[in-house]
Amino acid sequence: MPRNYTGLVVLKNKLRKMSVSLPISVLILLLIGAILLAGCSPAGKAETGQELADKIWADTVPVEGTATIYGLRLSLVNTQQFIGWYDSLELSEAQENIKATALDTLAAPCCDEFTARTC
What we know:
Elements (H helix, E strand, L loop, with lengths): L2 H15 L4 H17 L10 H12 L18 H10 L4 H12 L15
Helix pairs in contact: 1-2
């Protein structure tokens, strides 16, 4: 039985134990069912996967031209500069320790059994 329906059965049994009348129980169950079918969205319309992905993208990915703390604006034109920094900057031992500690707390993007430091 799907999880949502299992929850409704449990709720129905709890209402029965609380001696709630049948019409009130039915009304509560119908209301919960309507909320589940509506996708719990305030407008009564569930977002599609693409709409949700677009919203997450807009909230997390900076637009081109956004200022950075290191003086360059975000742009694909600056990609080579970022690659150059990755290849040429050397961290001190203290900086390497901070980096290792930070990456050891994150799961690797490919799997949960390794840390981000291993990738």
